[in-house]
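Re: duplicated header lines in exported structure tokens

Our pipeline writes sequence and tokens for each protein into one text file. With two proteins the header for the second block appears twice in some exports. Here is an export where it did not happen, for reference. First protein block:
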Amino acid sequence: MQNIAGLEIQEHEKSKRIININLDDEIIKKLIFPFNKFDLTALELKPFTRFTIAKSLDDLTNNKLSELMNKILRDRSTGCFTIGPKNISSKINDKFLVKLSTAIAHLIGIPNHDSMTGNYYARFEVKHEDKSDSYLRKAYRNMDLHTDGTYVKEVTDWLIMTKINEQNVEGGETTMLHLDDWEHCEDLFNDPVGKQNFTWGSPKSKNVDYKVEHPVFSSDEKGRSKISYIDQFPEPKNMNQGNFLQRLSDGLEESKNKIITKLPVGRSIMANNYFWLHGRKPFKENQDLSRELLRIRGSFFIN
């Protein structure tokens, strides 16, 4: 791995495809002032302020951080990294983490509007009790492997998830799977049903009042598999589509090549949304369980 001043870069302990990027204390210290210039309301209402804090972060690495992150995300052999402060101090609170995630995202591309929250990012809690209509907040259910943005018209090239806080948590590990490591990919990618248009809807909490049509599988410019899939939202039109989705779901969940990892508080994971799937293991039951996550998803800069 290359050396960049202020960054510690290494392979993830569970996979050579995932790169860990640690931000030195000096970089975090130098971010406090530019981050304090804008409160969260300013970032939410004035999109250009998000680029200002992104530039502050990149400038501290002589613009090498944006170069490194873009290279990792666009490279099929990697496509995923974790990033965060090397050491967590009292100055690294929830607001700082929202700003850091915002800065990272805006060095990669343009975030999508998140209809669930009416913002460019979503913050959501997972707790012991839940009455929502989505697996996202159901602590004791396995969240099966999926990609994001299956039910919206916006292009979703990437997503970043940041762990803001957690207490009284056992289990709930992040699961990841790269298409090129998936044992059943070739078989399902070559099935013509996967290239048919499927209808994709969403539950009421997503605040999206339309449905979209697209296949599960498509190809990149080199003919390699790309996937757009989540188990909860496709509406199969016939027996062939229904049975294909069941085979797909079983094949993903049975994979022996899933990467199961714990994401520490204060850390983000960012992945290419076309060839990485992500999910979450169930939590161990606890009435005081609490986890807060932040999510941003969007498209690459065209240039």
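Second protein block, exported in the same file:
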Amino acid sequence: MIALDTPPDPIDVTDITFATDNRLAGNLIGQWAAAQLDGERAVIALLDVFDDRIVSVDYQRNNGFLEGMGIDVADPNRTGDEAPTGQYSGGEYEIVGNEATGGAEDGGRTAMENLLSRNGDINVVYTINEPAAFGAYQALQAAGREDDVLIVSVDGGCAGVGYVADGVIDATAQQYPAQMAQLGIEALVNFAQTGETPEVTDGLDFFNTGVALVTDVPVDGVESIDTAEANELCWG
């Protein structure tokens, strides 16, 4: 038995899971954002999927982003319990809040409006996915802030890569769902022929199908691909 996209809990209910390392995806955009700030105070908005339940994609991407920024998280398997102020890898930070978006454009817009009403100095916006990022951009645009806020996200679908190329999103972490499906089918065929099951990726309890930081503004020390290359690899 195999699973695709999201490792189950407990992990051993399947023989193998083909999925993206969501924490690494968040970590990459966090490192990039910290480098872009270059020591400037980070005033951070966190746009998640939910605020009334705990799901792995939420805490893995969100906390991966914070860890990439150099911010300690209290519980790696929860969101919203890190210190609201402190030091990131480049200087001081303040987290304005976590807001639910449902992973949707309208949710991203409303969440961003809510956070801007609390603090108009937000200069870094993490979003769970690219539809939420586009909604956040619309709210920032309406407030006249779209040009002085970094927006980072996760997924790397073709629409999202287009948002990066157009300057709506500054960086995203691209994932490869087609690779998950392909490897899953190959694993089934190989098991039928040989009885062998694939091995998990070192250090993980699933097979990581890959992630790449996508931006047209690369920074030293954080490997990335540009939107031209990402457009050849995108999905959707």
